[in-house]
Design a protein that fits this description.
mainly alpha; Growth Hormone, Chain: A; 2 domains; 3-stranded antiparallel β-sheet; about 75% helix; globular; MFS; membrane; transmembrane helix; MFS_dom; transmembrane
């Protein structure tokens, strides 16, 4: 009996007069089929899709046997446009569920807030009369507190509810902005930064990113997930760029045009930060219940595959859903829930990744964005508005480079793309503090910014390649904790160096450490990626052959 006949028997269906039935076991292959059907409807009409225990049953008129039909001229034009849009990931973003689009908007809005505060955080603490060493200590404790609170919130996010956890994070963000605007005492601000959500380095902090990336994986199929992650990160970079520019020009307006004091102008920025937290809360409240995990997991276990379950495949289906559907294991509870569920074979890989990620994060934390903006303001006396515009341009360059990196990695591989783009960026980073001329220093920083973030998407793809699917969440969570913990060490060192007029050493140290990370990734994972990729391609080809 053919697969199609078995699937029809399983679903209680007859062939039907003039109808052709085909079975696709591989969701990726099926998704390619559906995209062709969407763009070539007259030549490729699909009547119905059913899900069975064997695979996905596609019913179409008899005679539609070629999955790549002859295309008229108009269809060829559509094909070119479709290829461009698909290469950019815009089709995946357009077809994604509403909640995914809302999460991208949230990432943008939140990053605007981070950009607002990053430009002024060090300058604000300096204006309050704090020593550079105290400022570095402040930023270190802020990151330590963020590590603990984020780990706790993400650990129990599914039990508390993802929506509730995101709402709590938004409230903490709003409270931090208000407290920074109303108080100037060092210890009150430190408490607000540790308990609340204040980014000392311009990067993503709090529980948001881990939960949102988990939701995106929960709502989408693997074939489009990399595109969505790229645009999700792109929203973060463009939001941070916008926040930096807004902060700079608002400060210049308040201090030079309205003649406000510098401290009061800083406090207005923090009030804007608090307002963004409240706006984040509103965006969180309009998310649907489908972002929650527990109810859907229980539903998947009780009713694994029922007739007519076609919508989740296209808009709400999850990656590795077969594994989750067939799993009868109970969720881990108690103290064991604190430990990531990682197999013995993966432990050496995770240990190496933790070491290299920690080294990279520590290098980044020695010259975080907040200290870098302060450096240009302190060394070259750059005006606030001009400073905001400079870092706006640098973040936009970084955002654009991420799209380019995705295409490069398809041709060179993830590890080579990471090293060939990230390593030169670290050379420019290391020498930023050496020139006495502002324009030369800015040129070096722009060259660094244009390549520094090109490794982000290939790095995520590399993790997905070398780590088992059922372990990805645990490994990514572990790496995030390691990265945040390692990044908490750098600001104190920077504060000490700045106090001794050795700012240039921090750039040199940062670039050197991150270059060692690049070399380590090349040494440990170049061959491993190739072997894993060949194994994955062989498995997919085998599934496609069985499906056809």
């Amino acid at each position: 009996m053919t697969l199609a006949a078995r699937a029809r028997t399983d679903l209680g269906l007859n062939q039907g007069v003039g109808l052709l039935t085909r079975v696709y076991r591989n969701p990726t292959f099926l998704l390619r089929l559906l995209r062709k059907a969407h763009f070539y409807k007259p030549a490729f009409p699909i009547r119905e899709i059913e899900a069975s225990g064997i695979g996905y049953l596609v019913i179409m008129p008899e005679g539609t046997v070629n999955p790549d039909p002859a295309r008229p001229a108009s269809a060829q034009k559509k094909s070119i446009a479709n290829s461009v849009l698909s290469e950019l990931g815009l089709i995946s973003l357009w077809d994604s569920p509403r909640d995914v689009k809302l999460l991208c908007v949230q990432r943008f809005v939140r990053a605007v807030g981070y950009g607002l505060s990053t430009l002024i955080l060090v300058a604000y603490l300096d204006a309050l009369g704090n020593k550079k060493t105290e400022i570095g200590f402040f930023m270190t404790l802020t990151l330590v507190g963020d590590t603990c609170i984020s780990f706790f919130l993400t650990l129990f996010a599914d039990a508390l509810g993802r929506k509730a956890t995101l709402a709590l994070g938004a409230l903490l963000m709003a409270a931090s902005g208000v407290l920074f605007a109303l108080f100037g005492t060092y210890w009150i601000l430190l408490t607000a930064a540790i308990v609340g959500v204040i980014s000392p380095n311009g990067n993503e902090i709090g529980p948001f990113r881990a939960i949102e990336e988990s939701i995106i994986a929960h709502l989408t199929v693997p074939d489009i997930r990399s595109d969505l992650y790229a645009w999700y990160n792109l929203c973060g970079l463009t939001g941070a760029a916008s926040g930096l520019m807004i902060s700079g020009w608002v400060l210049q307006l308040l201090t030079e045009t309205l003649r406000w004091s510098l401290l009061n102008s800083y406090r207005i920025i923090f009030l804007m930060y608090g307002a963004i937290g409240l706006f984040m809360l509103c965006l969180t409240l309009i998310l649907s219940h489908s972002i929650e995990s527990e109810k859907r997991q229980q539903k998947g276990i009780q009713t694994p595959m029922r007739r007519g379950e076609t919508t989740p495949l296209l808009s709400g289906g999850r990656p590795d859903s077969d594994q989750e559907v067939l799993s009868d294991s109970k969720p881990t509870r108690g103290l064991r829930a604190l430990l990531p569920n990682i197999s013995r074979d993966s432990v050496p890989i995770v240990i190496i990744l933790c070491f290299l990620y920690g080294l990279n994060s520590f290098g980044s934390s020695v010259t975080p964005l907040s200290w870098t903006t302060y450096y240009f303001q302190w060394r070259f006396d750059v005006e606030k508005g001009q400073l905001g515009s400079i870092f706006f341009v640098s973040q936009i360059l970084a955002a654009m480079s991420m799209i380019v990196a995705s295409s490069i990695s398809k041709r060179l591989g993830n590890v080579k793309t990471m090293v060939l783009t990230h390593l030169p960026a670290q050379f420019f980073r290391a020498v930023i503090g050496l020139p006495n001329n502002m324009h030369v220093a800015l040129l070096l920083y722009m060259l660094h910014a244009s390549m520094n973030y090109m490794s982000t998407a290939p790095r995520s793809a590399l993790i997905a390649t070398i780590v088992l699917p059922e372990e990805r969440t645990a490994v990514m969570g572990t790496l995030n904790v390691v990265k945040t913990a390692a990044s908490s060490l750098g600001p104190s060192i920077t504060g000490t160096l700045v106090d001794r007029n050795l700012f240039w050493v921090s750039f040199l140290l940062s670039g050197s450490l991150k270059a060692l990370y690049d070399i380590g990734m090349l040494v440990f994972f170049r061959q491993k990626e190739r072997k894993k990729s060949e194994s994955e391609q062989s498995r997919v080809r085998q599934q496609d052959t069985q499906a056809a």
